[in-house]
Amino acid sequence: MKLSATTASEAAHAAPFASSYPTAAGLLRACHPLPAAVVTGLTAALAIAVGRGLPGGALTVGAVAAGQLSIGWCNDRADMNRDRAARRRDKPLVTGETLPGVVAGAATAALAVCVVLSVACGPVAGCVHMAGVAAAWWYNLHLKRTALSWLPYALAFALLPASVTLALPGGPWPPLWLMAAAGLLGTGAHFVNVLPDIDHDLRTGVHGLPQRLGRRRSVGVAALLVLASSLVLLVGPDGPVGRQGWAVLTVTVLLCALALLRPVREADARLPFLATMGIAAADAAHLVLLTASVA
Question: φ, ψ for residue 208 (rounded to 5)?
Fold first, then answer.
């Protein structure tokens, strides 16, 4: 049977999706592996910095890893219909590399593991960590479409150092300035993380604060937030500012200038994204070093 020109065109357009099939790699890609690995790695560095032993440190890192997996899978499952409408070929649920039921089941199982491991870290530390994970799920399921989209990031990142230190003997809270710096860093990461997808988000009904502000203003807000995080890390600790603090501040100012001075369009959003992520990496390293000094 001969296809009409219109039918043939539609079939060719749909072929990349129809030819795909569920794979373990597709499920792995659906968990947002890079952000999950970054947050888990930061937690491992914090656990080492505060002197957590191997068994306790492994529990904390395992709880965070399970929580991050659950958050990533929840995110892709919640966004499935919007991603399909936009024909996002980078999304495994769109290409058919994994299935909705599989992703939902994986998110639920990872969340259950996260709860068990969090409780094993201690009642207070566990509750604090689960509050951060709950905030991230709240973002996925509702807040990402509102002007409060930044709030779960601020809360989850601010609580991350506390979930590590509270598992130590005596359950000490980290200094407020350390939690504030982590919260500012996480909020800045939210603004820069959505830069490449702002136009797609607006077309599919996602109106978080960065989408409402637009790409140019979101770059500015992200840069100011990570700069504020650097300043808090600089002035928060007692005593004189060390060379590492001044070095981080210098790098932050230079990268902020790079991010803000370059015109921001969809085609070149990668430069401000990379510049802000560079600031975040410097701040994260400084955060770990300072955590070690106050633990």
Answer: -70, 175
d(CA 35, CA 41): 10
Cα 133 to Cα 257: distance, rounded to the nearest angstrom: 33
Distance CA 68, CA 45 (A): 16
Task: Give the integer Cα–Cα distance in Å for 61 and 45.
Answer: 10
> How many alpha carbons fall within 13 Å on the CB side of residue 98?
23
| Nearest one of 77, 70, 75 to 94, comparing CA atoms | 77
Buried b (16+ CB within 10 A) or exposed e, 47-70: bebbebeeebbebbbbbbbbbbbb
**Residue 243: what are its φ and ψ, rounded to 5°?**
-65, -35
Nearest to 35 by CA among 71, 61, 60: 71
Residue 171's alpha-carbon distances to 123, 133, 175, 237, in angstroms, are: 10, 20, 13, 20
Q: Output DSSP code: residue 21.
A: -
Identify the weakest region by mean pLDDT among 76-80, 146-150, 288-292: 288-292
Phi-psi region of 238 (alpha: psi -120 to 50; beta: other; left: phi over 0): beta
Location of structure tokens 């633990």: 295
Question: Which pair of structure tokens corresponds to residue 247?
Answer: 């070095």
pTM exceeds 0.85, yes or no: no
How many angstroms separate the CA atoms of 273 and 295, rounded? 32
Greatest distance between any 2 Cα atoms in the chain: 81
DSSP class of residue 22 equals -
Is the pLDDT higher at 238 or at 234? 234
**Integer Rg of the chain from CA:** 21
